[in-house]
Design a protein that fits this description.
Structural class: alpha+beta
Largest sheet: 8 strands, antiparallel
CATH class: Alpha Beta
Length: about 190
């Protein structure tokens, strides 16, 4: 894994995100990420370590899970060396494993809508604060891996839904993939 937030965000495209649940394994290929690097005013690490964001300051590859707007959990991957706060938001996956489990968790019938967007992704995989701080590079309840397939053509655009540094081109996605979130105009 690269020790650079933007490079890691790009590197994670095409990797597998797998959740082990009582019902079985569920997950898929990462098709969209956003980078929140060192000193980024839109990042949760910007003001320093707090009890809420401490996982962003762990060595790269750890989960940072937070509740956004009191409604949806979001999953980030810590992206720098220990003590340096930065992370990559996992925005969307293409479901490939345990689709029926994700459908039940979300109450959604359209596979396209199961994990298209960071809140939907966390709901589909039952990701919450209990997973905050776990090492995603080790076998466990949530982990990252590879299925050996190429990621496809990677696009780059501005990030979605932020007010600070909104025009930074730090969003990466698989071009033409229907599981990517956001407006069509951003996904070309």
């Amino acid at each position: 894994m690269p020790v650079d937030t933007a490079r890691l965000a790009r590197f994670l495209i095409g990797k597998m995100l797998v959740r082990i649940l009582a019902e079985g394994a569920a997950g898929g290929r990462i098709v969209e990420t956003e980078a929140y690097g060192i000193g980024d005013p839109a990042g949760h690490a910007y003001r320093g370590v707090t009890p809420r964001n401490r996982a962003l300051f762990l060595e790269r590859g750890h989960a940072y899970v937070y509740l956004a707007y009191g409604v949806s959990f979001m999953l980030n991957v810590s992206s720098e060396t220990s003590g340096v706060g930065a992370g990559v938001l996992i925005r969307a996956i293409e479901p490939t494993i345990g689709v029926a489990i994700m459908e039940q968790n979300r109450g959604a019938e359209r596979v396209r809508d199961l994990a298209r967007g960071p809140g939907r992704l966390c709901e589909a995989l039952k990701i919450d604060r209990r997973l905050d701080g776990i090492d995603l590079c080790q076998a466990g309840p949530l982990w990252l891996g590879s299925d050996g397939q190429a990621s496809g053509e990677i696009g780059q655009s501005k990030r979605i839904g932020i007010t600070r540094a909104p025009d930074s081109p730090l969003r990466f996605y698989v071009r033409g993939n229907s599981f990517v979130s956001g407006r069509q105009a951003l996904n070309r």
